[in-house]
Structures are given as C-alpha cells and as structure tokens.
Design goal:
- Two copies of one chain form a homodimer.
- By secondary structure, chain A is α/β, with parallel strands linked by helices.
- Chain A has 15 helices and eight strands.
- In chain A, helix 1 (22-28) crosses helix 3 (48-58), helix 4 crosses helix 5 and helix 14 (355-362) crosses helix 15 (376-385).
- The two termini of chain A are 36 Å apart.
- The mean pLDDT of chain A is 97.
- The A-B interface holds A 1-16, 18, 209-213, 216-217, 219-221, 223-224, 227-228, 239-240, 243-244, 247-248, 251, 256, 259-260 and B 1-16, 18, 209-213, 216-217, 219-221, 223-224, 227-228, 239-240, 243-244, 247-248, 251, 256, 259-260.
- Chains A, B: It holds the Pfam family ADH_Fe_C.
- Chains A, B: One of its GO terms (molecular function) is metal ion binding.
- Chains A, B: One of its GO terms (cellular component) is cytosol.
C-alpha cells in the first residue's frame, strides 16, 4: 500500500425529501445571494427547480441564474458564469444537475477569484487556490463530482477536454435525493453507471499491489452498480436500487478508492476525453468503448489483478489466469452490450480515418497511464482495438 | 436504505515516515501552543515522542504535557487536562496514542469551552458544541476515534462508561503511520481487531434492509481485518498487512458503514461498557465475550442477515438459513479463540454472582438496541449467555 492523504470535507445530505433543505444549508453558511447554475431545463419539468426556489425564498436568499450547461461542459459557459457572478456580487454557487453542471459550477466558483487566464487552471499547475462556496443538488449520478474536487471542462476553441482539481473545489454541501433520478431517460442511468464503474476500475487497475481493502471496496462498488443498474432497467423507480446505485457512484470517486493506490491509471479517461472533445460523444458511451480496449491491450501488465477482477466481479475461475483475465474483459463487454451501450467506435460512426486526429489530441497530455505509461504507438493501438 | 447525513472533515495523513509532518500541520492550522496528551510512556520507548518533539521545535510550536491516560480513560484525567490546558492557555490538543488517549483528548478539547459540569456532555443532550482543534498521532488501531467525533469516558466515581459525540470533536488532522504498531504487544493488535470488527457488525446487524452497498463495504472490512490479523500474528512487521488492518479499522467507524442504516445496534457495546466500567476489562476482550452472546440471542430477529454474514465472511452455506446463521456465530467464536481472545465471562473471572451488578449498570442507559430494543430481561439473558 502506498502512502496517502485523505481529506473530504463535503457534507452529504442523502435521501427522500431532502431538496427542501437547501435554503437552510445556504443560510447556515451565511450565503445571501447565490448563482443558480443548471442545464437544459429538465429541472423545471421534474419539480426540482420549484422546490429550490421555494426553499430559497423561505430563507430570504437572493438568487440569479445561468443555465444552458451542455454535456461536456464548455469553457465559454464558464466564462459567462464568472462574469455574471462578478457583476452580481454573489457569495455562493448552487449547481443543480449532474457532473457537467457541477463541473461548470466548480470552474465558475474557482474562476471568480482567479487572476490568470481561466484555461491555465486546467492546462498548467496554476490550479484554483480559492473558490466561492459551492452547493449541489444532484440530479444524475455518474461523475462523483458532488463529493470531490475535480472538474472537467471542454475548451471548444482548442478541442481540449481537460481536468482540474483542488481542495477549494469540494462542494460545501451536496444534496442527493435518489427519487429525482426516477424520471431520467434510461440511457442516462446507463451512462452514469458505466462512468462510475470506470472510476472504480481506474484505481483497481493502476498497478498498485497489496491494497486488499481498497480492492474489496472497489469490487463492492462495481458489483452493486451492476446489480442495481439491471434492476433499474426493469423498474426505474425502485427506490432501494436507485439509492444503492447513486451512493455507490458517489463513493467510486470521492477519494476512498484512491487511498493507498498510485492514484489511478486514468488512461481510458484521457483517451475518452479526446473522443468527447472532438466528436462530442457522451462520456459514458465513450468509456464503454475505450475502457475495454485498454483492458485488452494491457492485461498482461498485471495478470493477477485482471484474473482477480474476473473472479470477484463475474465469478469466472477456469484455473488459468490468462484465460480468466480475457474472459473477464469479454464478460464486461457483453454486459455493456446487454445494457445497451455501444462497445466499438464504428457503432458511433468513428472510423480508422479519425484515429490520427484522436491520437494528435490525446498526445497533447503531459503523460497518460500509470499501470503502463502509454507511448504514441500504444495510444494508436488502443484506439485501433476500439474500432 | 434510510436517509442519512455524512460529513467527515478529518484530514488523514497515512503511511511511512509521516509523524514528522505533525509540526507543519499544526503550523498550517495556526497552533502556537499545544497540549500533548498520552498514556503510559510507550511512545518514549518506540521513538514516536522524540519525532514529535523534533517536529514541534522545528516549527516553533510550544508544548506542555498531560500523560498517564489509562485504558477505559477516566473522567478525573480529563478534568486535570482541562484545568491544565486553561491555565496554560493552549490553542490546540495533540493526542499521541490509541482510542483511550484520543477520547480523553476529545473530552479535554470540548471541556475547554464547556460551561456546564463536564459529565453532562456524556450524560445528557447538552453535548459539546465547540472544541479546541484536535490533532492525532495514532499508535493503536481499534476505536476509529482518529476519524470520528465520538469519545467514550469512564466516570470512576459513578462507574459509568458513557459516550458523547459531535462534529466539533472530529480531529483536524490524524497521522497514521502503520510502522508504529509493529512493536505493539500481540494482545493489543488482537483487541483492536476485535473492536473494529465489532463496529462493522453493529451496523451490519441493526435491522436495516436493502442497504446492499453498505453491507458489501462492511463485509470487505471484516474479511480484511480477519486475514490481516492472522498474518500479523505470524509477523507483526508485515507492512502491507498492518496497513490494510489499520486503514480498515479506521473505515469501520468513520461514518461510511453507518450511512443508510438505522445508525447501528450498539447493544453489545453498551453491555460491554458496563463490563469495562465495573471490572476494568479491556474493551476488545469484553466485546469478544459479549457480542457473540448478543448474536446468539438475536439471530432470529433478522435471520437473512445472519445467514448472509455466515456466507460472506466464512463461506458457510448448508442451504438452511437457520443452521447457517448459528454456524456463522460459532465460527466467529472459534476465530476469536484461535487468535487468543476469551469468549466467556468465566474466563475473565466474572460469575453469575456479578450479573445483577452488570444489569443494574447497563439499565441506567436510556435504551439499548435497534435490531431489538432490549428489556431488562433480555439484558439478563444476554449476560447469562455470555457466562
């Protein structure tokens, strides 16, 4: 096990009828005027927006709004948000949405105090040191952004989808009401599940040895996501399945699984980010395509771990570690197909002709991979395997 | 799954050669003068004390000391600590030890600002609202106190071993260097392991239904504690076994396993606290005796859960849930015997003649038990089963 620091100050308020508490939480944190940040307006259809507004008014909290955040959230929207927040002198941000909205809100919260050009917080080591207090009402479980300090933003001018992180970006309070996700399109539940499983796998397959407790925790999270996703495809309003999925997704990227590891491999995420940046693919679909290709390409780098994955997740045990490792990957792909995910680039219209562009985008990163540091040739091979 | 709030602000610094960071952490938190609190002086033999002093001096942090904390930490020592802390105007507390020292330090930290009579913070709902910032260097893993807001103190005048808790009592920073525990007597490692397993079991057996993710996390922690304890009995200096045990013990009572449950049953802890209060039994031994008796007495209250425990922890599956449940309990008792724990009251010199006194002490509590709320008769029966 490696040395680590774990610190996660976010307060989670979880369960039924919890959205109503948002005004009180803002008040306790001395927020007088808040910027509400959200996406395309589904929160106005499902009643979340109204509940928030009532709670804010009851607690005499002023609010202004910036909406229209899109999946793969854009830098231009972040800049719009920062300018509006400054002009209106808000003292807090309230994100109502999934990972895209939360990440966009984090960039606004950090950008509010940032003197440098905003993209430098993503591109360089000049990360956000200070941020407006951030509050979250989660409406889609996937990225874990409700309980971590990470934000992924797409610079649409340069086609870069890059990540920043820092202690200042952890939400003060995140409210997670699983019932809000009853009305999600199935596709979004599935994308979220694949994203959360992928987070757990990034830590699981980063080459760390002798981290038994973290492996068992990761396996617990992956197994629970698989079983609860299957239940929800039959009945999206099964509360307990939804609650278990939602909390598992949060735990998959709140720092717990990272403890004692090398920090995660993250190759699959980086290669997927290039896919999303260039072709606006949804992250969950991109991961269902890229991660299996990465697994196939790298299983020989840590065969015992891949063997263990097959056993602990899918009960595969032929006695031959190499066969088990491959069967484990194949079974994961079959499961992705079963829940309706694409598992090849071709299915989403990307062909061999696009690979040069993907590789060019991906190789801008300082480095990719901890289990194996990927060379340009490795990156080409993995994208080709994903075709 | 039940609604819950999760909030745990403690910063954990984990791994080899981390004790040296304490001065820097105090400085970052603007601490100028700290009260060092510890036990019988083993920290002077194993080098921990010297490392701390060097780090404090390097960072120009003044310190004073109150030592001599005993297992089942006493209220009189807490009062001594509060008076000394006030007289010397410290602005922080540094606990160097295991659960007893940390709990005593928490009571001092809270008592520093407490206007009421100190025992009222344990006896009534007038809990500590404010506390001096607390820092911890953990030397014995067991209670999880390094990452929670709980403190258990014994009032030696009234023979009450009672608990308080609150957000103010979470340590700011806890440093966990597993190598410090290499030199522990085996008995202390074993007691710590039993305590940590018992914490996980309190949540596991509190009657909550449909909390799949928390059950899997609890099972992961219990299994890891069992396997690593066995390794350490052979080789106390196996770093990875120690690191996995130590981190599992912290996770067993840092709030993670509590999420979505009824909050844990805690009958076994309460009944054990009476044992410790009256006979100064070590908590880990007391739990190895009391918890199995509670399990035997209550398995019919939630047979599916006891059946699952047998399967997931000990691979027991005869096909008959009732038989499995009983075999699971017997196997746990056998494991306690194997690692050298007493499993009956007789073994520690307590006989039927002492039961009235135990029952009298235990029934002072407002109530005991969530899986089943225990009547006086239940309490008598459980102590008798433990004979």
């Amino acid at each position: 096990m490696n040395n680590f620091i774990f610190q996660n100050p976010t307060k989670i308020i979880f369960g039924k009828e919890t959205i109503e508490k948002i005004g009180d939480e803002l008040k306790k944190n001395n927020i007088k005027k808040v910027l509400i940040h959200y996406g395309g307006g589904s929160i106005k259809k499902n009643g979340v927006y109204d509940k928030v507004v009532i709670s804010l008014k009851e607690n005499n909290i002023e609010f202004i709004e910036v909406s229209g955040v899109k999946p793969n959230p854009r830098l231009s929207k972040v800049i719009e948000g920062i300018e509006f927040a400054k002009k209106n002198n808000v003292d807090g941000i309230l994100a109502i949405g999934g990972g895209s909205v939360i990440d966009s809100a984090k960039a606004i919260a950090g950008g509010f105090f940032y003197d440098d050009y905003i993209w430098n917080a993503f591109a360089t080591k000049n990360r956000f040191k200070k941020a407006l207090p951030l509050f979250v009402i989660l409406t889609l479980s996937a990225t874990g952004s409700e309980m971590n300090g990470n934000a992924v933003i797409t610079n649409e001018k340069t086609n870069q989808k890059w990540t920043t992180s820092g202690l200042a970006l952890y939400p003060k309070v995140s409210i997670i009401d699983p019932t809000v996700q009853f009305s999600l399109p199935k596709k979004q539940t599935i994308n979220g599940a694949v994203d959360a499983i992928s987070h757990a796998m990034e830590f699981y397959f980063d080459g760390t040895k002798n981290n038994e407790i973290q492996l068992q925790l990761a396996e617990s999270i992956i197994r629970t996501i698989i079983t609860t996703t299957e239940i929800l495809l039959g009945n999206p309003e099964d509360y307990d399945a939804r609650a278990n999925l939602v909390w598992s997704a949060t735990l998959a990227l709140n720092g717990l699984l990272s403890t004692g590891t090398k920090g995660g491999d993250w190759s699959s995420h980086e290669l997927e980010h290039s896919l999303s940046a260039l072709f606006d693919v949804s992250h969950g679909e991109g991961l269902a395509i890229i991660f299996p290709a990465w697994l196939k390409y790298n299983y020989n780098e840590h065969i015992e771990r891949f063997d263990r994955f097959a056993l602990k997740i899918f009960n595969i045990d032929t006695g031959n570690p190499s066969i088990d490792a491959k069967l484990g990957i194949e079974t994961l792909i079959e499961w992705y197909k079963k829940i309706g995910q694409p598992t090849t680039l071709k299915e989403i219209g990307i062909t061999e002709n696009n690979i040069d562009k993907l590789v060019e985008n991906a190789t801008q990163k300082e480095y990719i991979g901890r289990l194996k540091r990927l060379s340009k040739e490795d990156i080409i091979n993995i994208y080709k395997l994903a075709l």
